[in-house]
Predict the 3D structure of the following.
Amino acid sequence: MSYYAGIDIGSTAIKIVIIDDNQEIVGKKVSGSGSMFYKYAKESLEQLVKDIGIERDDIAYIVATGYGRKLFKEADETISEITANAIGAKKAGEKFGKVRTIINIGGQDSKAISLDENGNVVNFAMNDRCAAGTGKFLDVAAAKLEIDVEELGEYHFKANGTPLSINSTCAVFAESEIIGLLGNEHSKEDIVAGIHFSIAKRIIRLTKKVGLNDIIYFDGGPALNAGLVAAIEDELGRELAIPSYPQITTALGAALMGTWVST
């Protein structure tokens, strides 16, 4: 049995997926990127190999993708995160039907990808890295509100009335808006809902540039945030297709690519 590894080195997290000859996932791992991308990616891969009980030599091919893909020296190949995300979404989204649009919110940027009938990329758009619509902004906002980022979804559903407006497109200025809202004695719950709806509006504007086609697949760490999911679905007027492990879609796509090019 041979194995194939996909490593997605993002700005905030390293995601690794190992699959077998049958393209079934046998191991997955998400860890922080830290300041030394190569070191932490290498250590994470070694730990995952150990955890699933195989040897490093059992991995026939490694494909790296993401922000730090060029830094992973052991990779047999590197591909863009757009391509890897599309491949992974096509596979992980099979249970929902045929994925035609992908929304991906990462640590430093957000992406919208349009696919054709065969799952090939036909168009994509990315936001500005300063934009207040990324995973990093959610982390910063949670810190300012003195709550854990995992609690954002819970706070969202306790909000009352119309969500507050967060208008700044720059994360720094949006952070100042949050501080101002706290100073005006708005509740944390209402501020969280406002943050989620502001991100939802921005990501939908981005997605409309490439086309809102069924089925809309949402991945990236923020897809675990039920409040953000609810806000996007409310703005869209339809449900999103969300995989069980939304953080690893791009790494899965990289691993799948490895099974194709190594044979």
In short: The radius of gyration is 19 Å.
